[in-house]
Amino acid sequence: AAVTPLSLYNGLPVQQAHPARLPPLLGTGDSVGVTLIATDTTVEIANGVQYNAWTFNGTVPGPVLHVRQGQTVNVTFVNRGHMPHSIDFHAAEVAPSVAYRTIAVGETLQFSFLARTAGAFVYHCGTPPVLLHMGNGMYGVIIVDPATPLPPADVSYVLLESEWYTQHAGGTVMNGDYAKMLAGTPDEMVFNGEAFQYNDQPLTARTGQRVRWYVLNAGPNRTSAFHVIGSMFAAVYPDGDAAHALTGVSTYVIGPGQGVVLDTIMRESGDYPFVDHSMRAMTMGAVGTLRVGPA
Amino acid sequence: AAVTPLSLYNGLPVQQAHPARLPPLLGTGDSVGVTLIATDTTVEIANGVQYNAWTFNGTVPGPVLHVRQGQTVNVTFVNRGHMPHSIDFHAAEVAPSVAYRTIAVGETLQFSFLARTAGAFVYHCGTPPVLLHMGNGMYGVIIVDPATPLPPADVSYVLLESEWYTQHAGGTVMNGDYAKMLAGTPDEMVFNGEAFQYNDQPLTARTGQRVRWYVLNAGPNRTSAFHVIGSMFAAVYPDGDAAHALTGVSTYVIGPGQGVVLDTIMRESGDYPFVDHSMRAMTMGAVGTLRVGPA
Amino acid sequence: AAVTPLSLYNGLPVQQAHPARLPPLLGTGDSVGVTLIATDTTVEIANGVQYNAWTFNGTVPGPVLHVRQGQTVNVTFVNRGHMPHSIDFHAAEVAPSVAYRTIAVGETLQFSFLARTAGAFVYHCGTPPVLLHMGNGMYGVIIVDPATPLPPADVSYVLLESEWYTQHAGGTVMNGDYAKMLAGTPDEMVFNGEAFQYNDQPLTARTGQRVRWYVLNAGPNRTSAFHVIGSMFAAVYPDGDAAHALTGVSTYVIGPGQGVVLDTIMRESGDYPFVDHSMRAMTMGAVGTLRVGPA
Ligand SMILES: [Cu+2]
Ligand SMILES: [Cu+2]
Ligand SMILES: [Cu+2]
Ligand SMILES: [Cu+2]
Ligand SMILES: [Cu+2]
Ligand SMILES: [Cu+2]
Ligand code: NA
Ligand code: NA
Ligand code: NA
Ligand code: NA
Ligand code: NA
Ligand code: NA
Ligand SMILES: [Zn+2]
Ligand SMILES: [Zn+2]
Ligand SMILES: [Zn+2]
Ligand SMILES: [Zn+2]
Ligand SMILES: [Zn+2]
Ligand SMILES: [Zn+2]
Ligand SMILES: [Zn+2]
Ligand SMILES: [Zn+2]
Ligand SMILES: [Zn+2]
User: What ipTM did this prediction achieve?
Assistant: First the structure.
């Protein structure tokens, strides 16, 4: 039988999960700086299973960037990988033929953009074949806080779903499989890069807290459906704007390249699994746990 | 060639379709009681074709539950199947680690929840692998009427779309095929459990009537797109709230685990097919007929 | 290896792309007439690659029809193909068993409908198996301008995404492959019928202009996700109604059979690729370019 990452998965708890908590703003001034470095790295995609990835800053996903609407983001993009790469921010409005141009190994690219639009946005490499660059891990999240704030949240998490398409490289290491990427037949689907990690290291909250979920889908291919078991989305902000919120929603569709902001408020202590409700996605890794303690 | 349920389908009209009409409220008081019993049963998935299913109350889908916002739902869940099972209501806000816990064969579980949120919600078994339990038929619908009513409807139907993944058990009987469930390659896609049934036993309405469609997707895997041929959704309530309605929509996407409420008003007598507009889904069974007679 | 349309693709620039610009209204009076003729034709699905298609008026997609809300559309449908066909307008509210009935080769069908609802709608053949008729190219777009206008646009484009499922007919010619249609495994995904055509013949606009995108998905099977690289949707009209607009959206999901209206305003000159952000779709042809020049 074919060696898949889940056949190599050791089933033990991960010792450290990728950070999911929304980090602080990059800065409070009119502009913030961010440096993203393309590097090839081996990452963990399930406990005990590695993948020879192409990354931003050495992790998959890359770092979560947090800015506020109206700030200028000064980007420095450095290519320390082994092939040409580029960077595309869904939060930006810039000419891709200029700002998102592909640079050679060793080169640096600088550009700035104004974060005009609030919301949850992916960034990713846009060098052809984009399917391969994204399939190999070149994506991350930028959160733009609205100038008119949403209702204040007590705790905020960022979850970026994506797919892994693999072939066996040897031992416990996988490589990308472009034929599977083209066919759309993933071997894993994960939140923040690694299968099942938040079952082992649960996200946490307390009863009565407003938990804000920034949920995005890097694909590269699939449409997902986000649901928190035992809970209801008190608000869904399809465009990050409180005036357009839906209320009382159980499950929300998120296409590849899309992001959405959703709020939950748990009333009972306990463990609440969050899933891509496409059950094969959950089975292949797109599931975690929010552990809710007493207020 | 492989034996599939549609290769066994006898093509004759089904004599009795699964009920699609929204049933009355379970009760009008402050609380209602519901008993759901997990049982293994052979069900019909196309005329002349059976499936060895895991069910709630002996049918796939399980019974439609109809309550109103603000009622307390007292649930009794009994496991008379052959393996551990559980029950998860998308309408509820409860700690899954308590209310949705898996019980052994022969056991009974009781819990209550307040129907805080209006809308159309799935319920389903949540025992791992959920993909297998849902793939084998363990799902149903609960409708929660809003405290502030939607515009009154003249006739209301509930349609739960789902997929069947099969292997031949012998004769005209199929079993579930977990490898197909994992691969996301269904052999049938159906409304309310059985292919083509509402072409044979059409739903009915009259011209000028407001027909309310509660349409849900149990998956377990696919995103669907609901459309009524020859008609327009006068209103789409993405979250069951009239204040957030869209108007004049032809086709609406419904992810796995999601439900939506939609209204049509036909002006001409005739037959109106309703479909999952993913045409392979329609071809594999996700199509029925609304027969509209004169006012 | 199997011969696919992209293995036959010559990689040269297409000399003439299918028209994407929204054509003028069919008329300004109370009623407009339209004639659609089913004909079998060989069409180009990638440069140097042909497909033996079933069409409306000899092209895939068929002509873009542009009317305004409140107009009566008088349809004449002629079957000059080699098998029975029919015509189904998502913009219409008519009894399908009458207006959308299948007619034999050589026959003509006439019916009228009132364009009651504004928006972007597909039309298509509805003769069983619809999957095959749509898979072979029988679809097009009708745009219904709202009586209460949207904010005025400076330039308007119509993009209909669809899938091609193929087997080799010989030389550079492909036929439809019904087994692939049923399996949902396309060989190409395209805007307006032909892979990559708008990379070779870009759509155009100027900085500061409001560009209106009417984007639809004919499927026959897949859910898509529309995104314009380097840009943001200033407005998304999910139902064609300005009162229900979302603002500041990066990516929007469009199910098979669905259409949506979206606006962008580019501030910088340059090339902006538009894509189905499911990256395998982009790789298989669902990508083009908007070339933005100075104001
Ligand atoms: Cu790259
Ligand atoms: Cu992108
Ligand atoms: Cu079970
Ligand atoms: Cu669920
Ligand atoms: Cu036809
Ligand atoms: Cu249609
Ligand atoms: Na690990
Ligand atoms: Na709701
Ligand atoms: Na039967
Ligand atoms: Na509309
Ligand atoms: Na050509
Ligand atoms: Na926004
Ligand atoms: Zn890790
Ligand atoms: Zn890259
Ligand atoms: Zn609401
Ligand atoms: Zn039945
Ligand atoms: Zn179960
Ligand atoms: Zn509207
Ligand atoms: Zn052409
Ligand atoms: Zn046709
Ligand atoms: Zn907004």
Answer: 0.97
